[in-house]
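TASK: fixed-backbone design
INPUT:
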C-alpha cells in the first residue's frame, strides 16, 4: 500500500438510511464510498458526482416500464443497476424508489481511495484524475460489469470475492471533510446532477 492509499474506516450503509426519493438519494450519496472487493484486493472511491433519474423522467430507462434489461431499477432502493452503454462501457446505477417504482441514480465519478495501483492497471493509465472521472472510466477502474446487476448494495453479512461487490456502498467514518453543492438540470432535461463542490485533484 502506497502513502496515497492510507487505510480508511468505513461502515456499510443501511437501507433505512437511504432517502426514499431519487433526487434526495443522488444528493445523499455524494461523499459516500463505493467499495469493490476482488480476490486479494479492495478497490474503493468516494462518490463526487451523481445523476438522478426520477419517476416520470422521459430520459430514464424506466420511463416505459420494466423490461428484462431495466428491471433492477424497479427493485427496492439500494440495488445495483448495471447496463452496457453504446456498446462501449458499463454504467453503475443505484435503484432509488420502492419496489415496483422505477428510479435510479447514476454514479458518475469517484475520487479513488484504495486499490489505486490496480485501478491504473485496469484503466491503462497512471493519471489519477482520469481513473474514475466519468461513469465509463469508473466502471472500468472497478471492474464493474453486468454480472453485478441487481446486486443488493446494502445486504449484510460476508460477500464472496470475484465478480460481485463485497462491501457495496458504504458510508465513511473517516474524518476527511467534504463540501457538496447540488445543481438541478433545466426543465427540458429533468434529470438532477449532484457534484462535490471541490474539484478532483491528484494531490
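OUTPUT:
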Amino acid at each position: 500500500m502506497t502513502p496515497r492509499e492510507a487505510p480508511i474506516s468505513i461502515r456499510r450503509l443501511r437501507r433505512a438510511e437511504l432517502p426514499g426519493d431519487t433526487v434526495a438519494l443522488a444528493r445523499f450519496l455524494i461523499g459516500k464510498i463505493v467499495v469493490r472487493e476482488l480476490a486479494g484486493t479492495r478497490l474503493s472511491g468516494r462518490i463526487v458526482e451523481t445523476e438522478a433519474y426520477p419517476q416520470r423522467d422521459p430520459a430514464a430507462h424506466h420511463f416505459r416500464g420494466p423490461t428484462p434489461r431495466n428491471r433492477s431499477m424497479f427493485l427496492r432502493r439500494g440495488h445495483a443497476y448495471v447496463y452496457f452503454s453504446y456498446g462501449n462501457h458499463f454504467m453503475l446505477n443505484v435503484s432509488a424508489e420502492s419496489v415496483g417504482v422505477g428510479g435510479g441514480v447514476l454514479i458518475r465519478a469517484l475520487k479513488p481511495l484504495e486499490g489505486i495501483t490496480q485501478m491504473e492497471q485496469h484503466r491503462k493509465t497512471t493519471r489519477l484524475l482520469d481513473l474514475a472521472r466519468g461513469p465509463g472510466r469508473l466502471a472500468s477502474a472497478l471492474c464493474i460489469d453486468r454480472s453485478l446487476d441487481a446486486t443488493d448494495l446494502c445486504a449484510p453479512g460476508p460477500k464472496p470475492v470475484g465478480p460481485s461487490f463485497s462491501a457495496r456502498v458504504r458510508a465513511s467514518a473517516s474524518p476527511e471533510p467534504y463540501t457538496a453543492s447540488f445543481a438541478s438540470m433545466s426543465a427540458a432535461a429533468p434529470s438532477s446532477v449532484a457534484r462535490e463542490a471541490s474539484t478532483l485533484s491528484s494531490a
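COMMENT: The chain has a mean pLDDT of 77.
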